[in-house]
Structures are given as structure tokens and as C-alpha cells.
Amino acid sequence: MLDIEVARQLKAAGLTWKPQLGDRFTVPDRDLDEELFVLSNMTIQVHDRPDGRIIGFNGTTEWALDDVDLDEALWLPREDQLRELLGGTFRSLHGDEDAFAVRTELLGAERVFTAPTADDAYAAALLDLLAAAH
Predict the structure, then answer these.
(1) Is 7 helix (H, G, I), strand (E, B) or coil?
(2) pLDDT of the residue at 29
(3) Contact at 8 Å (CB) between 74 and 27?
(4) What is the model's pTM?
(5) Same structural domain for residues 22 and 66?
(6) What is the DSSP string of 86-129?
(7) What string of DSSP letters covers 22-86?
(8) Does a structural domain hold residue 11?
(9) Lowest-pLDDT range of 27-31, 37-41, 61-65, 104-108
(10) Are residues 65 and 86 in the same domain?
């Protein structure tokens, strides 16, 4: 799973979350940093309100959360989501017992991002792509 600090870096770099069923997230800075939530049809849903989008907790959460603004939640994209966000720049993922390497190509230049996990290697490549877009 993607580290919370890496998810914060992605958000700060401009990654926007379009919530979908199965997405994982946390609610940092509310004593819930260690709790992992998953959007589902039954318990946690996104609602559009006139004043913005919220995440509603439907009666089964033990923390008396009714809802939180979408901006308060921190998306923890999965490996497949990170790969999809790389789009046409993604070339390959290789791993061994020590590390994973994601290879991308942007404007004819090949780049390689190495990390201990595939999620972190994908995130490093995505951070680079987001920086190049700005």
C-alpha cells in the first residue's frame, strides 16, 4: 500500500481524486491517520452537495463520523491506478527481491524510477510526470 507521505506528495503535486468504488483513503489530522477506509455502496459513499462533495459514513463507523469534505480525505491510489495515471508514458515494471523499477518515456526521454515497492516506484514516476506537466 502507498505510504501516506507519498500520497500527500502526490496531492500537493496536483493529483486530483475522482472517487470510485473500491478506492482507499485515510482521513489525516483527525486522529484517524492509521485507519484505512474503502469507498463502497453500503458504508462509505461520495455525495454531491451544493457546497461541494463529501464522503458520507453510513452508520457503521465507530468514530461518529457523519461525513468529511472530500478535500479532507487523502486518496491512497492502488498500484493499478498509479499505472493507469501514467498513461502512455508507462513502458514497464520490473522487480526482484531488492527493488522495483518503473520505466517511463516522456518526450522521447526514457526515465527509470526505483523503489522498495511497486506502488512507490509508480508514485515516483507519477510525481515526475506531474512535475513535468507544470
Answers:
(1) helix
(2) 80
(3) yes
(4) 0.82
(5) yes
(6) HGGGEEEEEE-SS-EEEEEEETTEEEEEEESSHHHHHHHHHHHH
(7) T-EEEETTTTEEEEEEE--SSSEEEEEETTEEEEEE-S--TT---EEEGGGSEE---HHHHHHHH
(8) no
(9) 61-65
(10) no
Domain finish residue from 47, 72, 97: 72
Q: Is residue 55 part of a domain?
A: yes
**Single-letter residue type at 97:** E
Query: 86: domain range?
Result: 79-133
Q: Which residues pair with 109 in a beta bridge?
A: 106
Instruction: For residue 15, give the 3-state DSSP assignment.
Output: coil
CB 97 within 8 A of CB 74: no
Does residue 10 sit within a domain?
A: no
| Model confidence at 7: pLDDT above 90 | yes
Average pLDDT score over residue span 45-69: 72
Number of domains in the chain: 2
What is the DSSP code (8-state) at residue 21?
Answer: T
Answer whether residue 81 shows pLDDT above 60. Answer: yes
Q: Are residues 61 and 90 in the same domain?
A: no
- Let me know whether 97 and 127 are in one domain: yes
